[in-house]
Amino acid sequence: MMDNFTPAPYAAELAAAGVPEDMHDWLGQYGVGALVVKMGIHFLEMSPERTVATMPVEGNTQVAGILHGGAHVVLAETLGSFAAGLHAGPNRQALGIEVGATHHRAISAGTVTGTCTAIHLGRTLTTHEIVITDEHGRRLSTARITNLLRDIAG
């Protein structure tokens, strides 16, 4: 628990990633994760039902100069895991147990947007679909993630 005068260790990281202020208490001790920072993921909306973020293509490409398939999956898993964590609530955590993706179209420049939508929000499992699009709204990939929800030991 933080007092009102000490900034959370990751306050600047959370702000740079677009995490809403009302979630800083929850994530203030953890941040968004080194990979989210490294990939340049920026959140636009965050809720259990719908989480949206952008990610630059630049810096996340494979040898052929297109967005790496793994980068698609990183964005998808990030969105699904954050949405599941929000659904889990305090003193619980979401653990990804299955993720899969289908790549439909390549992209070599610009910014992609991932839109995560809840399929199932249960007591112990969540499932989300993530659609990644380009700046023209064309679907680049579709992913699905299932998270196990459990109490944090302690």
Automatic annotation (TrEMBL):
Q: Does the keyword Iron apply?
A: no
Q: Can you give the residue ranges of the Thioesterase domain?
A: 65-139
Signal sequence annotation: none
Q: Does the keyword Hydrolase apply?
A: yes
Stored CDD domains: PaaI_thioesterase
Q: Which InterPro entries match?
A: HotDog_dom_sf (IPR029069), PAAI_dom (IPR003736), Thioestr_dom (IPR006683)
A single Pfam family, by name? Answer: 4HBT
- Could you tell me the keywords of this UniProt record? Hydrolase
Protein family according to the UniProt entry? Belongs to the thioesterase PaaI family.
Protein's name according to its UniProt entry: Hotdog fold thioesterase
Q: Which organism is it from?
A: Arthrobacter humicola
